[in-house]
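haha ok so turns out i had the wrong file open the whole time. this is the CORRECT one, sorry everyone. sequence first:
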Amino acid sequence: MVTAIDVSSLPPRQLPQNIQFFKLNVTKPLPFEPESFDIIHARLTFSHLQHWERVLKHVVSLLKPGGWLWIEDIDSEFYEDSGNVPGPFTKRFNDIYGSHMRSMNVDTLVGSSLQSVLEKMEIFSDINSVEIKCPMNGKDKDTYTP
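then structure:
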C-alpha cells in the first residue's frame, strides 16, 4: 500500500487501489504510528517549511528500522559554480526572495544542508547525497552527466 500526503487536495480522479491519499499538513501531528513506513519520499517539501529540521525528525520517526528516506529538495538561492551571483537580476531575486523567506523563518539553503543534518541525527547507517545543478540559461558550462 502506498500512502501519499499533501497539504493540497488532489484533483478529482480515480486512484489505483494500492494508493491511499490524505490531505494533511506535515507540520501538524500526523495520524501514523512511529515506525509505520518502509520508505518515505519527500519532494520539494522541507524548503518551504518553518522549523524544517524539527519536521524532518518527526518524519524520520515514522520509518521502520532499516527503512529508507528519500528526499529531493532545493536551495532557493542561485549562484554560478564559482559561487558568484550570475547577474543583477539574479542578485535582486536572491535578495528579495531570500529576505522574504527568512522573514517567515524559512531556510533558503535546505538542499545543501540536508546531508549534514541527517548525519547529526546519527540514525542512518548510510547517507548518500547528490547535488544536481540546474542551469538557468543556455550559457551554463556545467558538464554534469548522470
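DSSP finds three helices and four strands in the chain.
again sry for the mixup
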